């Protein structure tokens, strides 16, 4: 049995949450250090090196490892271990995250739950310092825990955007959060770049990488205190509850079933999620495998890739703000569609970048930076308009399950194509299909109809 939901909040109600918004921004700053330094730049090549050492001990410099690892009795190419690890963590996350939303919407103090998930992830990220030698298995376990924890924390974080921001302001607030995240991630990456440029002072490249990953984990944990403490008093809202006497676990399962039944009735929300499943799969795979592509396929050293990603972070800072401004005039829906078209051009260009062509690589980085922040920030705010009021965490758990949990398919495709062709070029260009399918489906989403179906206030610009 459900209860009557509260009246829609007024403009004045949202105005009182300005302080919460200022605290909310900082979680993008906090977790982006791990996403940028560890998950995107350093851990892929580092785990591949550790796995290669385990499969081919004492391999001469410049030689190719022809041995496979044995992973639960299955042969795995060391070069494909990282993509497969990403696939494993995101697949498990797809199952777990949909339960997180049901639990989060039954939590009276959502900021505390945000802190719990972020804390677990930050500890796992910090422990990556101990991945060394041939201990690739520890790296697989820690990356899986950190990735799932990150996704769980973002379910709570994204849901809070709806509770503290008026529909007319969500593109702006979401874009500012992403921009601050790129700025924070870029600052730590700059420090890590200096460390790797002076690797001898840290006992070699491997030690510099391990210390950088430790710093990213500590950064994530410490800066999470700002949004957690700043939103500590923010309470959950009164919303429809299914089987309120069933307890947290049982009630959450029943609430989850009710969420899926509700989603089926929201045709435009469902269509958006399917579109997002495809184009986000492409984005996440490009982000996750780009460092490996640059080092293993294009032959650039890690210091060059760090310089590239450092540049991308600051370009993305401006790109997120730029797309936010464009969305205020033309709408987030049109802006995201343009961004997806730009992604296709970027991937095709990546296929043709010559080996060790530094100028072409950095030109490609500018293109990635411009489109990266905008498509991610506006997808979040666009979806927030299609989420039923008072059930934000439940529906954002589906969003995060798709963001973190379906990119396993892109990672698997990337790894399989590499294993079959022994080249990352066809693997990267294979990702174009995800953007084409996602864009085609998104173009069919009727945003005005979807906003009405969800019972939300129509923003001034759609």
TrEMBL record:
Annotated compartments: Endomembrane system
Which terms in the GO cellular component ontology are assigned?
Answer: endomembrane system
Source domain of life is Bacteria
From the record, give the transmembrane residue ranges.
84-104, 111-130, 136-157, 178-196, 208-229, 270-293, 305-324, 336-354, 360-383, 395-417, 423-442
Where does it primarily localize?
A: membrane
InterPro entries named among the record's database cross-references: Atg22-like, ATG22/LtaA_families, MFS_trans_sf
Enumerate the UniProt keywords alphabetically. Membrane, Transmembrane, Transmembrane helix, Transport
Q: How does it sit in the membrane?
A: Multi-pass membrane protein
**Which residues, by range, are in coiled-coil regions?**
none
Q: Which PANTHER family match?
A: AUTOPHAGY-RELATED PROTEIN 22
This protein is called UMF1 family MFS transporter
Q: Source species, please?
A: Knoellia remsis
């Amino acid at each position: 049995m459900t209860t009557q939901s509260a009246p829609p909040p007024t403009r004045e109600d949202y105005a009182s949450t300005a302080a919460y918004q200022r605290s909310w921004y900082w979680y993008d700053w906090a977790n982006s250090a791990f996403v940028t330094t560890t998950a995107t730049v350093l851990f892929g090549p580092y785990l591949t090196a550790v796995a290669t050492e385990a499969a081919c001990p004492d391999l001469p410099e410049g030689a190719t490892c022809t041995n496979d690892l044995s992973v639960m009795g299955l042969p795995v190419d060391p070069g494909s271990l990282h993509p497969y690890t990403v696939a494993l963590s995101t697949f498990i996350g797809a199952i777990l995250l949909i339960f997180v939303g049901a639990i989060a919407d039954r939590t009276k103090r959502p900021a505390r739950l945000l802190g719990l998930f972020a804390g677990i992830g930050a500890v796992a990220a910090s422990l990556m310092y101990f991945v060394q030698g041939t201990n690739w298995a520890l790296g697989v376990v820690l990356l899986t825990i950190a990735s799932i924890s990150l996704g769980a924390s973002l379910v709570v974080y994204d849901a809070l955007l709806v509770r503290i921001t008026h529909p007319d302001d969500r593109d702006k607030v979401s874009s500012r959060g992403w921009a601050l995240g790129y700025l924070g991630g870029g600052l730590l990456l700059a420090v890590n770049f200096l460390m790797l440029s002076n690797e001898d002072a840290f006992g070699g490249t491997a030690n510099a990488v391990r210390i950088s990953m430790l710093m990213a984990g500590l950064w994530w944990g410490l800066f999470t205190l700002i949004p957690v403490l700043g939103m500590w008093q923010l309470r959950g809202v009164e919303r429809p509850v299914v089987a309120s006497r069933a307890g947290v676990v049982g009630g959450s399962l029943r609430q989850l079933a009710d969420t899926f039944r509700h989603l089926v009735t929201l045709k435009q929300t469902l269509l958006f999620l399917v579109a997002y499943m495809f184009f986000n799969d492409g984005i996440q795979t490009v982000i996750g495998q780009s460092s490996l592509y640059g080092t293993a396929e294009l032959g650039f050293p890690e210091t060059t890739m760090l310089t590239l990603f450092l540049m991308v972070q600051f370009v993305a800072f401006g790109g997120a703000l730029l797309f936010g401004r464009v969305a205020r005039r033309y709408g987030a829906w049109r802006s995201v569609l343009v961004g997806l078209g730009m992604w296709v051009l970027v991937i095709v260009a990546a296929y043709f970048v010559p080996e060790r062509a530094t100028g072409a690589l950095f030109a490609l980085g500018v293109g990635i930076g411009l489109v990266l922040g905008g498509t991610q920030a506006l997808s979040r705010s666009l979806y927030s308009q299609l989420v039923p009021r008072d059930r934000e965490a439940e529906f954002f758990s589906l969003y995060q399950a798709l963001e973190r949990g379906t990119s396993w398919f892109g990672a698997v495709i990337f790894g399989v194509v590499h294993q079959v062709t022994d080249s990352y070029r066809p693997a990267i260009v294979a990702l174009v299909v995800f953007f084409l399918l996602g864009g085609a489906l998104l173009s069919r989403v009727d945003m005005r109809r979807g906003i009405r179906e969800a019972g939300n206030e129509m923003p001034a610009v759609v």
